[in-house]
Amino acid sequence: MGITIKLFASLREQFARDELKTTDTPATVHDAWLRITQKERPANILAAVNHEYVNFDHPLNDGDEVAFFPPVTGG
After folding, report:
1. Which domains does the chain have, with CATH numbers?
2. Which SUPFAM superfamilies does the protein's record reference (predicted)?
3. How far, in whole angstroms, is CA 71 from its chain's centroid?
4. Rounded distance, CA 7 to CA 75, Å?
5. Helix, strand, or coil here: 73?
């Protein structure tokens, strides 16, 4: 079944996509991050699973929605 990965703000621009669907399920949020970036995450990236903030060691299940958020900036 897989998962849906959503990217917001500057991450969406950096990776030129706002959503990615996988056909398999990565074990953790960290594994999902590596799937789309192929590099370790910066310390200031936040993650949510099914609309709840989680740590990057949070396990994933089929059908989950994972969202990654960059630091909030503004003026």
Report:
1. 4-69 (3.10.20.30)
2. MoaD/ThiS (SSF54285)
3. 14
4. 22
5. coil
Residue 69: what residue type? Answer: F
Sequence-distant (≥ 6) Cβ neighbours of residue 24 within 8 angstroms: 2
**Cα separation, 66 vs 75, whole angstroms:** 28
Q: Which DSSP state fits 68?
A: E
Predicted structure pTM score? 0.89
Query: What are the tokens at 70?
Result: 């960059």
The size of the chain, in residues, is 75
Could you report the per-residue pLDDT of 21-38, keeping only the tens digit for each? 999 999 999 999 999 888
